[in-house]
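Box 3.1 A note on notation
Throughout this textbook, protein chains are presented in two layers. The first layer is the amino acid sequence; the second is a token string describing backbone geometry. Keep the layers aligned when reading.
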Amino acid sequence: MRDDFYRAFEDKYRGSRELILGRLEAYSRFVDPLLSVYPGGETLDLGCGRGEWLELVTRKGFHALGVDLDEGMLEACNELGLAARQADAIDFLRELPDESQVIVSAFHFVEHISFDQLRSVVEHAFRVLKPGGLLIMETPNPENVVVATRYFFLDPTHTKPIPPELLAFLPEFYGFARSKVVRLQEAASLSGKESPTLHEVFEGASPDYAVVAQKPAPLEVLRLFDEAFRPEYGLTLNALADRYDAAIAAANRESVSTAQEALKAASRVGTVAERADTRSRQAAANARSAAMAALRAEATARAAAEEARQAVERVQHAEADASQARQALAAVYASRSWRLTAPLRWASFQFQLLAQHGPRARTVALLRKLRTSTARTAVRWVDASPSLRRWGGAIARKTGTLGLLMRLYQHGRARAHGESGLQARGVEVPSEMQPLTPRARQIYADLETAVRLLRKGG
């Protein structure tokens, strides 16, 4: 009974035929040199499936044959005209003659068989390969955490993952000259990425790997393959983990450096804040001192205002007292008793002067005063009567006495006007000169005028 389950499963989860053909090109550097050693050599593909490898090596010029138990998988090979048989792959390998093949391949085959069967495959592959021939075994890579814990068990026919170290050891044990672990299908973006994420560490290692082993051959044959066996291929879990650890360490160092810079900045900010706090405290102290000074100044101003108010009150009281005194004195001067007693006061004052200065001095003073009074009276008559001045002037001119009369008039006018005459000439009589007689003040005024004239003249 035919069952197409596994072909449908492969079509869904292994990938398209074009995708697989592109991936298989990675082996060209290993198999191409064989064409120069064994042109058109025979190759055997164990578990050939849909026949992608058969198609690739046939195109290159090899005679390829595939074997598989699944009839549904072989149908794809038959549709393309590829040589494929339905048979048990291990049994078929055992029946091949020695040194009949140049390549024995097993793509995603070894994880389906037991370890004893795997040993048998490696042992018989060594037998049937020609010198320098290649054994290629590709399988899921358990170094990829997601593959090892999830995708490997997606295929129900898988038995258990095979570590690369174990699969590489088997060819060495059975006599192969050399073997190479070729890790495959990792994301191209991860190849040079120095800071993978944790997710990329878990699933970024090469999902598949192959062990390519070469049977001993003459040195000139082996040298043709040196360039293929020399490089390291793909990404290991350790490499990604080391990159991740290095990135974390770098990030930690950067974080520590940033934290240290932040601490330094915080310290600088703290110092600035401390200085600002000191300045603010000093400013507060200065403000308090200024406030106290302002309060003291305000108190002083209030005290001065109070003193000024009291002084104003005292002045007002003094003015009131002076006003009352003036009113009282005016009332005394206006009273009848003051007028009636005026002759008595005058007589008493004259007796005091007589007792103080003597009879002779008082007599001279009275005569001078009488003369002054007479001169004032005559001057007032002349000043008050223009007709008298004209009449008197005409008589004086006729009699030749005009000059004498003018001198007498000027002398009487000076006697009559006294202080006002001096002031008219711009002479200020000091207060200490006020007790002098009018004649003495006149002499002082003449002297003062002479001094001024001398100063002006140089």
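The chain is about 65% helix and 10% strand. The chain has a mean pLDDT of 84.
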